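Translate sequence into structure tokens.
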Amino acid sequence: MTPPSSSQLSQLTRRRLLQGMLGLGLGGAVLGGAGVTQAYQFGVVREQQGVRGLRKPLRAAFLTDLHYGPLIGVRSVRAWVRAANALRPDVVLLGGDYLDIEPGGEATPLLRELAGLQAPLGVYGVWGNHDYRSFGRSGAGPGWVSRRNELHGLFAQAGVTMLRNEGRVVRDDLYLGGVDDLTTGDPDLPAALYGGGSRATLLLSHNPDLLPDLPGPVGLVLCGHTHGGQIRLPWVGAPVVPSRYGQRYVMGWVQGAFGTPAYVSRGLGVTGVPMRMLCEPELTLLTLTPT
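Result follows.
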């Protein structure tokens, strides 16, 4: 079966799903408060994974899909930052879609909160598709490049190193690569993975749809983007998943090319509609161990 195209996926939005649920009489229960409540209550998910090349364990806090904007405010971001710091991670990794604002909109409140993240090995992130929309890439003019560069510098001032088709040696035994967004950026996987050598390799990618196209084995890939579907129904799962591969990479542990393990987070924020259903927001703590 041929996966749906991006244009076909765009026709099935979460807003349209909500309208359909209302038409079926299912939306009343959600709008009664359960869905909205679930959208703003998050949990810490603890996972463990062996990674070839590591010489000692690593604790990584993974936060993705913050979607700061009309539906997600400073108080939510502050709670996530505090929860991440309380886990005492060695490194903090951010999976993109920080912004859900109009091009030229104010990002200072978000950056002020992200500046509070603390980890001895640093804080690193990649861009997501909503970030590019917030840059203004969907418009006709070229000004979005300047906006992206400006925000790259502002994130750096807040202590967040953005990786766009590049990587860093964050520990003697660990290389971290970050690839640009698959659908709205200009991804270059070989460039993101270049320089790892014999070290353990982690790859940050906002979108999991690049997993079948990895150019070689990677120790671990961390992704977001799908929100776990954001709205899941009993016995059905997520009717809408923003992926060419449907349910294949919707959430949790999955596998990429060359048997590469990957984890897809449900993310922390919401987009489209201010609710979740049977899909709790998550902050992920990964304990990575030598193999």
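Note: The chain has eight helices and twelve strands.
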